[in-house]
From TrEMBL:
The keyword Heme applies. SUPFAM superfamilies: Cytochrome c (SSF46626). It comes from the Bacteria. Gene3D superfamilies: Cytochrome c-like domain. Pfam families: Cytochrom_C. This is Cytochrome c.
Length: 185
């Protein structure tokens, strides 16, 4: 009898160890996990100064500094910008990595939106006018010129910019409709 109960205890113990190692492996890869913060966030009400995401259908951009609630028009711009970026820009650009053209993260820190609109509409004209930044981009990318996207309106280009800015953030928490997943570095 003693052998059977010892054997049973060892089998159960080994099974628990295997489960714990499996959970540890999944947790290390980020596929599964939990934290005490998650439980407290769902129980506390969100207020204006809170860093907790509201439970309604509001889009929240989360950065290390603060969370920014988007207006419905900004939310629409993010959604439209996502579609426009995928349809027109992904062949040559990514937000955080150089593809054929430069990474777009931080573009509004390097150039104002008005310059970006002019550049997207007609990069050859901006280069021909001698704009130092445009000429440097042209030279740095082997004199390979970006095609003109004159079919995009200023509103379309600004929507793409808004989407790029939303992707620059450390994390993006989007409403219960699941438009975007949370982004981690």
């Amino acid at each position: 009898m003693r052998t059977n109960s010892t054997s049973f205890a060892l089998t159960v113990g080994m099974a628990l160890i295997v489960l714990m190692l499996g959970f540890l492996g999944l947790s290390a890869t980020g596929l599964v996990g939990f934290s005490a913060d998650e439980d407290t966030q769902t129980e506390q009400p969100a207020d204006k100064g809170s860093s907790i995401a509201p439970k309604d259908s509001t889009v929240v951009l989360a950065s290390a500094k603060a969370k920014k609630l988007l207006t419905p028009s900004e939310e629409a711009a993010v959604v439209a910008g996502d579609a426009l970026f995928k349809a027109n820009c992904t062949q040559c650009h990514a937000v955080h990595e150089k593809v054929v053209g430069p990474a777009l993260a931080g573009i509004t820190e390097r150039r104002p939106a008005s310059w970006i609109v002019s550049w997207v509409h007609n990069p050859a004209k901006v280069i021909a006018n001698g704009d130092a930044y445009a000429v440097k981009l042209f030279d740095d990318y082997g004199k390979q010129q970006m095609p003109s996207f004159s079919q995009l309106s200023e509103k379309d280009i600004k929507a793409i910019i808004t989407w790029v800015e939303s992707q620059e953030e450390e994390g993006v928490m989007i409403d219960d409709r699941g438009l975007y997943a949370e982004i981690h570095d």
